[in-house]
Design a protein that fits this description.
By secondary structure, the chain is of the alpha+beta class. The chain is built from nine helices and 17 strands. Helix content is about 25%, strand content about 30%. The strands form two sheets. Strands 1, 2, 3, 4, 5, 6, 7, 8, 12, 13, 14, 15, 16 and 17 form a 14-stranded mixed beta sheet that branches. Strands 9-11-10 form a three-stranded mixed beta sheet, covered by helices on one side. Mean pLDDT is about 75; it is low at about 20-30, about 45-50, about 55-60, about 260-270, about 285-300 and about 390-399.
């Protein structure tokens, strides 16, 4: 293996939002032009026709009006974090960009509502960029410093800027629905449900009225869902334009509904039912026990493969433990705070593992992911992990 130079570089593209919604007309025009080209004989060589097609494709894909690259000597700082409501419920993702020493009139070319996409590459010899996020631009701001430096502060909003989290729900009464159907109705095509089959099909019996997604999350987290988190949906700008041509909101983030405790209590119920089964005299218990053990071993091996080791992503330090108390003093949940070199491959809900200070393998689920990025400073993915060893017994006592 040849040594590779670890060097983060970023590319930021700015698009005018109104131009994106004119794409369907251009697509129709290109179809008619292509039909005319097929009917007419080919007089030009292949090289010239290719250049014409590429120029047409560039026009149709709506090229960005501004492109900033750190390889050109620009200093960029990026922070990606969650946005909370007044009741401390997570409602969206937000990125804050600080771009240094640009022309003073740079903000004159930007407008609130423009679409911004952020890309990155991790190694110096790599030419292709990977997608980080895309969202709506907030109000551009600038700051002059006594030292002579000049910075531009930009905010990129997902879901919150387009009032996705405060829109009116229809229907707004969820009584009689299953938890799964209620979530899909409130967050269509933006939901990821990490629950067991029993919890998904649990019927909401009481009156459950929510006029906005804010009210929906406030009520559903009191009884049916333990955790609601957000994460960025991996989409590049070409997918963004395709969805924009259909008049759909395309920069929203995913809402991940998770019930950790329910998964563990269900496995405990299965174990207890197996223990309480009466032993039949006709059957030989010695021949039956190895089959159950082998099945359990196979499932354990399969689950071990599903956990991504954080050491493979350049774990910066051993994760620190965090203990939170539940509804009862006897109920405690363990979380781990980890920091790795930034990567777009890990998302909320992924299974990861690491080796703690005692050499024990800890398995957890990513419940929150933030990022601190800079082309001349820190580039880290900050993770909050839910320890998969957390579970409760049927009596409600923590173990």
């Amino acid at each position: 293996m040849e040594p590779r130079l670890l060097k983060y570089d970023f590319k930021i593209e700015f698009y005018d939002q109104p131009k994106i919604y004119e794409i369907p007309k251009k697509e129709n025009e290109t179809q008619t032009e292509k039909a005319k080209e097929k009917s007419t004989p080919k007089e030009k060589p292949k090289e010239e026709t290719k250049t014409e097609e590429t120029e047409e494709k560039k026009k149709n894909t709506n090229e960005p009006k501004i492109v900033l690259r750190t390889t050109d000597g620009i200093h960029i700082d990026i922070q990606i974090s969650d946005v909370y409501t007044s009741n401390n419920y997570i409602c969206a993702k937000q990125a804050k960009l600080t771009i240094w020493n640009l022309p003073i009139d740079f903000n004159d070319n930007l407008q609130s509502g423009n679409i911004v996409t952020i890309y990155y590459k991790k190694f110096a010899e790599v030419k292709d960029y990977d997608f980080i996020m895309s969202g709506y631009l907030g109000t551009p701001m600038s700051t002059d410093y006594p030292s002579g430096d000049f910075s531009v502060q930009l905010e990129i909003h997902l879901a919150s800027k387009s009032n996705y989290f405060h829109r009116a729900l229809n229907p707004n009464q969820f009584q009689g629905m299953t938890v799964e159907n209620a979530i899909k109705s409130a967050f269509p095509s933006r939901n990821i449900i990490n629950m067991t089959y029993e919890n998904k099909k649990r019927i909401i019996n009481e009156s459950f009225c929510a006029n906005t997604p804010v009210e929906f999350i406030e009520k559903i987290t009191k009884k049916y869902v333990q955790s609601v988190r957000t994460d960025i949906e991996p989409k590049d700008h070409t997918q963004l334009i395709r969805e924009a041509s259909l008049d759909t909101t395309h920069t929203e983030c995913n809402y991940i509904f998770t019930n950790y405790v329910a998964i563990q209590t269900e496995t405990e119920k299965k174990e207890e039912t197996e223990k309480n089964k009466p032993i039949q005299k006709d059957k030989n218990p010695k021949t039956e026990t190895p089959t159950t053990d082998t099945k359990e071993e196979e499932t354990k091996k399969d689950t071990d493969k599903d956990y991504e080791p954080l050491e493979d992503y350049l774990l910066e330090f051993i994760p620190q433990q965090e203990v939170t108390i539940g509804s009862n003093r006897n109920i405690k949940f363990i979380y781990w705070n980890a920091k790795i070199m930034y990567t777009h491959k890990l998302k909320v809900g992924d299974k990861v593992s690491f080796i703690d200070g005692t050499g024990k393998k800890i398995k957890g689920t990513i419940s929150q992911a933030d990022a601190v990025l800079s082309n001349i400073g820190e580039c880290s993915l900050i993770l909050k992990l839910y320890d998969d060893a957390n579970f409760l017994n049927i009596k409600g006592e923590a173990k």
